[in-house]
Automatic annotation (TrEMBL):
The lineage of its organism: Bacteria, Pseudomonadati, Bacteroidota, Flavobacteriia, Flavobacteriales. It comes from Flavobacterium azizsancarii. This is TraR/DksA C4-type zinc finger protein. Keywords: Metal-binding, Zinc, Zinc-finger. It comes from the Bacteria. A zinc finger (dksA C4-type) spans 97-121. Residues 93-122 form the Zinc finger DksA/TraR C4-type domain.
Length: 126
């Protein structure tokens, strides 16, 4: 008979749940900021009244919007991954490596709460 722990305790899961919920709130606030930056160019509607041609500024503005759009996409994926982690907490399967079936280290989960693989499994992928 093995003494290996197969899942985290309810107290540990509650701690992880709080960490994940805090990260979701911060990530959502960051996403809202990113979206507002690329949806609102803060020009106060004066573009159509300006007689000068600003090709360089418009190109830079377009690149900036594209970069913000990419940031928003990454942030949405991060939030989705965190929500999936929250679902695993509720199912009491949180923190179990999807490759090895062993527990992922607590310190790793505190830093990367949406992790689904242990360091051991990540190293096997290389």
């Amino acid at each position: 008979m093995t003494d290996e722990i197969t899942r985290y305790s309810d107290a540990d899961l509650a701690e992880f749940k709080e960490i994940i919920q805090n990260k979701i709130q911060k990530a959502q606030a960051d996403l809202d900021l990113i979206k507002s930056a690329y949806m609102n160019d803060l020009n106060n509607g004066t573009d159509d009244t300006s007689p000068t041609f600003k090709a360089f500024e418009e190109g830079s503005e377009t690149m900036s919007k594209e970069a913000n759009s990419q940031l928003a996409i990454r942030q949405e994926k991060f939030i989705r991954d965190l929500k999936n982690a929250l679902f695993r907490v509720e199912n009491k399967t949180y923190g179990i490596c999807k490759v090895t079936g062993k527990l992922i280290g607590k310190e790793r989960l505190k830093i990367v709460p949406h992790a689904t693989m242990s360091i051991e499994a990540k190293n096997l992928q290389r």
